[in-house]
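Much of what follows relies on a compact textual record of a protein's fold. A complete example follows; check for yourself that the lines match position by position.
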Amino acid sequence: MDGLQRELEESNFVSRGAAWTQLSGGRTNKAWRVDTADTSLVCKLFTSTKTNPLYPNFAVDEYNSQVALSGAGIAPDPIAFVQCEAGDVVLYQHLEGETWKSNTASVGGLLSKVHDQTPYEGLRFLPSGSNALIDQIKGILAECTQLDWTPVIKDPKIGPTKHAVLIHTDIVANNIVVTQQGLRLIDWQCPALGDATEDLASFLSPAMQYLYGAGPLNGGDVSLFLAAYPDKDVVIRYRMLAPLYHLRIAAYCQWKLERGDPDYAQALQLELSAINQAE
């Protein structure tokens, strides 16, 4: 961290004498809160360039998202994208608040606000519909060699979305900040132009709630969340695709487990149970 701090100070992105405090919560990148005499910012260092089948990790995408959403009351205010010796860095204004823990209806409203934004140029396009999900599932499982469960793929014959929108793709509790001005989303390193149901599926994944939140949501919280999302056609579409979304996350958990992350063992079991409940 000393080299990164020195480099940012010498480039005048951070003032000398600022207080650096490492932040917890992320599993991929490193982040620090940097307090100066007149402001607080976040320095996020992108440390991983490994290929991930679901969650790309690019600093420039996070910065571009923050710029595009500036003033919309959705994301942190951007400061700079900096290419440093230690890796790519995004600097942004620190959000005063707490990590989201309750009130799923408020998250439904937040996602509706995200999906109403005008998509900006340069977003990756994420294929949608049941065929695309099945292709993703098969692609992830093809990289796994230690399965002790049998994937059962059922195709609901749902076509691609006719209304691609800006999506975050990583809607987990740790990425939602409760501020005095309302909910805000951080960690925009894997945005896309795609199906709104992707974000609903991300938030409702029991594996992701287990790994990044207080545990899987109960049925009442799920119902409140879906009731608060105003586009009922999207909700209906999500319900039809839910078994495939759960299977895709299960495949991802298997992929992570085989790459040395034991936390995903319990997450896998939770997601496999959710498949049966969604059918």
